[in-house]
């Protein structure tokens, strides 16, 4: 009897915590915390190899860009605002989107301050597309980030190379 109750509780917890909406929300918050802490190994684990975004960046270029931008901050905090989750049009147990604004709190060099001011002034939210990896209910990967209003500044290394 006690074993059945424990099994039922464990099964209910697994179902509750493994729900796609909950996982997308948790992974979005985990991504923001990893960027905030400049934990690039964690960020890399959360981003899909098939990542592409609205600025033409793939996974490696997006990670390099993020390291350079967020490395400019002396102090950094990312505050998510109005986080909403929508399940994907294909298989809703495998795809979804987090839509949110976030406020950047912090200061740093000129590029950090420019980024903070630009992101905090956005009127459109960010859209983060997530996809469940394999058959694991707790493994989700970021496949795309979009915000058509955001213009990425050229980094010093890009200005020298004449590219984005």
Describe this structure in words.
The protein is an alpha+beta fold and 164 residues long. It has helices at 2-18, 20-36, 40-46, 59-70, 110-120, 156-161, and strands spanning 73-87, 95-108, 126-132, 140-146. A hairpin with a 7-residue loop joins strand 3 and strand 4. The protein starts with a helix and ends with a helix.
Which features does this protein show?
164 residues; alpha+beta; four-stranded antiparallel β-sheet; 6 helices
**Beta-strand content bin:** 25-35%
**SS-based class:** alpha+beta
What fraction, in percent, of the residue positions are helical? 40-55%
CATH class: Alpha Beta
Query: What order do the SSEs take from the amino end to the carboxyl end, as H and E?
Result: HHHHEEHEEH
Largest sheet: 4 strands, antiparallel
The DSSP helix count reads: 6
Q: What CATH architecture do you see?
A: Roll
- State the domain count: 1
Predict the CATH topology. Answer: Nuclear Transport Factor 2, Chain: A
Oligomer: single chain
The best one-word shape is globular
What do the pLDDT scores average to? 86
Unreliable spans are 4-17
Side-by-side strand order of the widest sheet:
1-2-3-4
Q: What is the number of E strands?
A: 4
Integer-rounded radius of gyration: 18 Å
Distance between the termini: 63 Å
């Amino acid at each position: 009897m006690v074993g059945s109750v424990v099994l039922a509780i464990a099964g209910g917890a697994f179902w509750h915590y493994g729900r796609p909406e909950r996982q997308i929300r948790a992974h979005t918050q985990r991504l923001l915390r990893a960027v905030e802490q400049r934990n690039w190994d964690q960020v890399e684990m959360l981003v899909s190899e098939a990542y592409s975004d609205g600025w033409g960046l793939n996974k490696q270029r997006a990670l390099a860009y993020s390291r350079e931008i967020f490395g400019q901050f002396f102090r950094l905090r990312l505050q998510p605002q109005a986080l909403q989750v929508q399940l994907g049009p294909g298989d809703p147990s495998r795809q979804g989107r987090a839509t949110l604004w976030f406020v950047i709190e912090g200061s740093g060099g000129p590029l950090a301050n420019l980024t903070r001011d630009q992101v905090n002034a956005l009127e459109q939210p960010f859209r983060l597309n997530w996809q469940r990896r394999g058959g694991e209910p707790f493994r989700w990967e970021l496949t795309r980030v979009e915000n058509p209003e955001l213009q990425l500044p050229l980094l010093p290394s890009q200005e020298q190379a004449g590219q984005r």
